[in-house]
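ok trying again, last paste got cut off:
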Amino acid sequence: MTLLIMNDGGYGVMRGIQDKYFGGRQYYNELHTPDFTLLAQAIGLQAWSVERPRILTR
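nice, full thing came through this time. structure:
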């Protein structure tokens, strides 16, 4: 099984709305998320972090 977590560190849709309607002022859309790679490895799973999508095209 492969699980892919895409983490933008916040609520991306809310960011877009706030950019459009509030001149880029950002409120309450940043999240402090765990390091999902370390979390998966801590429970014995193989896990990697990918910063650039090109890496996934193998």
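cool. DSSP finds two helices and no strands in the chain. Residues 12-21 form the longest helix (10 residues).
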